[in-house]
Design a protein that fits this description.
The protein is of the alpha/beta class. The chain has a domain of 116 residues: 3-Layer(aba) Sandwich (Rossmann fold), CATH 3.40.50.300. 47% of the residues lie in helices and 13% in strands. The protein starts with a strand and ends in a 6-residue tail after the last helix. It binds adenosine monophosphate (AMP). Adenosine monophosphate binds next to α2 and α3.
Length: 226
């Protein structure tokens, strides 16, 4: 099954992605994580995208499309995959559509902007393990320190309130065209064996409530051959 998680930064896509990949046994392809790994490694790609990412803007379509196409060609994606953070623009969605990979479900996570700013600006991470904390909702036992390793926590450079607002502005600028693209794709695919289904989900509930809603949605839209 191929699924796209789509929604503003901080809407909980990454958190829910973990449960979905376990439910279906498919890999998560999170373009933000792939780019951050490139930045950490100091590769040519990482150097090319570091400044753009830190400012909250999008990296170029050409670069991200090439990165995702290469990843989708890997053998672990043959049984399906979960795309998290891609496509983010209409051009990226068109490129994915042109690639011929059947997308079964597109889930649009909706969360109001002010909630997003609060969620992201309180987020702290142990960069080695990926463990995530929130100063208000899930604080570490000792402020600023990872519970398990004792390492100091870090904040993503693009999680400061000003950059979060810039990321939200970019999100709203690109969203209408992207939603139209999914609507066209959904309408055009209805006669196909694996039609695309586009669903909007309110993601303001607790992690468990959203998880159970997504789990039912996925079961209802699993392709027949799966
Ligand atoms: P994320 O972790 O998904 O919030 O992504 C962090 C940053 O990586 C974004 O603000 C962009 O700079 C970049 N990025 C991730 N995915 C994409 C994409 N599909 N298109 C363009 N830029 C992206």
């Amino acid at each position: 099954m191929n699924i796209i998680l789509f929604g503003p930064p901080g809407s909980g896509k990454g958190t829910q992605a973990q449960a979905i990949t376990e439910q279906l046994g498919i890999p998560q392809i999170a373009t933000g994580d792939m780019l951050r790994a490139a930045v950490r490694s100091g590769s040519e790609l990482g150097q090319a995208v570091e400044t753009v990412m830190a400012s909250g803007q999008l990296v170029s379509d050409a670069l991200i499309i090439a990165l995702v196409n290469e990843r989708l060609a890997a053998s672990d994606c043959q049984q399906g995959c979960l795309l998290d953070g891609f496509p983010r623009t209409a051009a990226q969605a068109e490129a994915l559509r042109d690639s011929g990979i059947p997308i079964d479900l597109v889930i649009n996570f909706q969360v109001p902007d002010e909630e997003i700013v609060m969620r992201l600006s309180g987020r702290w991470i142990d960069s080695e393990s990926g463990r995530t904390y929130h100063t208000r909702y899930s604080p570490p036992k000792v402020a600023g320190i990872d519970d398990v390793s004792g390492r100091p926590l870090t904040q993503r450079p693009d999680d400061t309130p000003d950059t979060v607002r810039a990321r939200l502005a970019v999100y709203h600028e690109t969203t209408n065209a992207l939603v139209r693209c999914f609507a066209d794709w959904e309408a055009a695919s209805q006669a196909e064996v694996r039609p695309l289904r586009y669903v909007v989900v309110s993601a303001t509930g607790s992690i468990d409530v959203v998880r159970s809603e997504l789990s039912s949605l996925i079961e209802a839209h699993r392709p027949v051959a799966d």
